[in-house]
Amino acid sequence: MKPVLSVIIPSFNRADLLIKCLRSLELYAPLHTEIIVVDDGSTNSIISETSHLFPGVRVVRLQRQSGFCIAANAGIASATAAIIELLNDDTEVTAGWADAALDCFRDPHVVAVAPLVLQLDVERRMAGLPLLIDSAGDTYDFGGFATKRWHGLEPLPFTGVEKVWGASASAAFYRRAAVIAAGGFPDDFGAYFEDVDLAHRLNWRGGITLFQPSSVVWHRVSSSYGRKPSRAILVQQSCNEERVFWRNLRRKSSLRDLPRHAVVLVAKAWRRLRERNFVPWLHGRWQAWTGIV
To answer: Most-buried pick from 90, 212, 224, 285 (CB within 10 A)?
Structure first.
């Protein structure tokens, strides 16, 4: 029987987190769910070996580490279900998370669904405090920056499913055919802001993205780069954010976007100066600008 959902988990050298992610899928994935782990060239094939501990999990192994985008695209190409979900290996799913999201795809115009992603903070859980929101879908300002809706807030009294601009690829559901038609994730981004770039193209093609608060995923948000990102990560984030802007200028409103973008750059430069991250931020922007000309 053809699977109702393909879950794709790109992973590199984080077997401890992957085990927790796969265990949650064992508990809560609907029947006829295809689970694909993309081993992004892990050392000694540790991700492949870990995945084989879970019956039914399929592995796609890359020969060398290639980054989230290439790994995600490899998983998408291998998937067989019409609906896919990208999961970070530092996430855990909860009961009913998939059913709530899959129901949204009954509308053929829906191309993506953003679940409610909560920050998995062990200290808050032990203290009996509610988990804070990591994302409830994305928004985008055409001056050149994306934000995670309600990031850092306690869960709100949500009124139901609503339309949003985009979904965070840490746990986003997509209609596979729509992602392929839009060109998938940009291979040269490596990681960071690739989901924002894809959301632009899905929107240009008339697709709808919905936020489904009944679909809940937990995310260890500091696992990807620790609480303080490295210089290399800051450069890559800055570069990709700038590339997203230039790749997706509104087709009939670019002159209106450019002055706003200049204001955004000044504001971001001032913020990075105060955070003492100005040099890697500028390095990333410079990489993006030199790639345009």
So the answer is: 212
What is the chain's alpha carbon radius of gyration, rounded to the nearest angstrom?
Answer: 19
Residue with tokens 């029987």: 1
Q: Does 88 have pLDDT greater than 50?
A: yes
Which element (helix H / strand E) includes 220? Answer: none
Residue 29 is given by DSSP the state: P
Total-model pTM: 0.93
Amino acid at 191: A
Task: Tell me if 61 sits within 8 A of 46, measured CB to CB.
Answer: no
Q: Is 17 within 8 Å of 90 (Cβ atoms)?
A: yes
What's residue 225's pLDDT? Answer: 45
41 CB-near residues (< 8 Å, 6+ apart): 12, 61, 62, 63, 64, 65, 66
Rounded to 5°, angle at Cα 268 from 137 and 118: 25
Residue pLDDT, tens place only, 19-45: 999 999 999 999 999 999 999 999 999
**Residue burial 102-119, b: 16+ Cβ < 10 Å; e: rest:** bebbeeeebbbbbbbbbb
3-state secondary structure at position 239: helix
On whether the CB atoms of residues 241 and 281 are closer than 8 A, the answer is: no
Question: What is d(CA 27, CA 221) in angstroms, rounded to the nearest whole number?
Answer: 22
CATH class belonging to 5-219: alpha beta
Q: What pLDDT band is residue 73 in, cutting at 50, 70 and 90?
A: very high
Cα 279 versus chain centre, distance: 26
Pick from 58, 134, 126, 46: nearest CA to 92:
134
Model confidence pLDDT, tens digit, residues 136-186: 999 999 999 999 999 999 988 888 999 999 999 999 999 999 999 999 999
| Domain spans, the chain | 5-219, 231-292
Distance CA 213, CA 157 (A): 10
